[in-house]
Design goal:
Number of helices: 5
Strand content: 15-25%
Number of strands: 10
Radius of gyration: 27 Å
Distance between the termini: 83 Å
Structural class: alpha+beta
Shape: elongated
Strand order of the largest sheet: 8-7-6-9-10
Order of helices and strands: EEEHEEEHEHEHEEH
Length: about 200
């Protein structure tokens, strides 16, 4: 077998074979190890940062579960009709999602809620979309461009009473009583909402 070496290449029977020098292999291996260490370190920092940012909201959510909201009268920004939130009737279960137009995860959650409504798993009148972080004109503009039939209200009282720290925050209510609170996207959030609101 006749082989002629030329730099890092080998010409063998009209085929070009790439030959990696041992020193180069060692360099690549070392670089891979450094890359793995660096990416692992960055991942740990990212997870730590997320936990640091979410910790206050998670602790607050646990603290607020079991609390009671005072029912108040609001105007539905979608229909301009007056409504009461939350319901005084303990038999009436509802879901409140605190959201904002600039919140990407909020739009994902609202889209999932809308899909459940379309599939008949949730009822639109059970869902209260609460935004007290933006102007009424901004909220109405969003409503006009969306297919959602939720009850849209602005409640600074609810935001303060529940000490909402991040969006989206989803609250499951039994009448005026807070059953559970969760913040951020949840893989099982929609399933939990469907199961909770289906019970009487």
């Amino acid at each position: 077998m006749n082989t002629v070496l030329l730099g890092a290449y080998s010409f063998q029977k009209n085929r070009i074979l790439l030959i990696w020098p041992l020193s180069l292999r060692g360099t690549i291996t070392a670089m891979k190890k450094k890359w793995n260490i660096t990416t692992n370190f960055i991942s740990i920092l990212l997870v730590g940062f997320i936990i640091y940012k979410q910790a206050p909201a998670v602790l607050n959510n646990f603290k607020k579960e079991g609390s009671t909201l005072i029912p108040k009268e609001y105007v539905d920004l979608r229909t301009n009709k007056k409504l009461e939130f939350p319901s005084k009737n303990l038999q009436n279960r509802s879901l409140a999602i605190f959201w904002a137009t600039w919140c990407g995860p909020c739009k994902v959650e609202m889209k999932r809620l809308h899909q459940s409504v379309q599939e008949g798993k949730l009822k639109a009148h059970q869902i209260y979309a609460i935004n007290s972080f933006e102007s009424e004109s901004t909220i109405r503009r969003f409503i006009g461009q969306s297919p959602y039939e939720f009850r849209f209200i602005s409640s600074a009282y609810a935001v303060k009473a529940l000490d909402i720290k991040s969006t989206p925050t989803t609250v499951l209510l039994e009448g005026p009583h807070v059953n559970s609170m969760s913040s951020g996207l949840s893989f099982i959030g929609i399933w939990r909402a469907e199961q909770y609101l289906a019970k009487k």
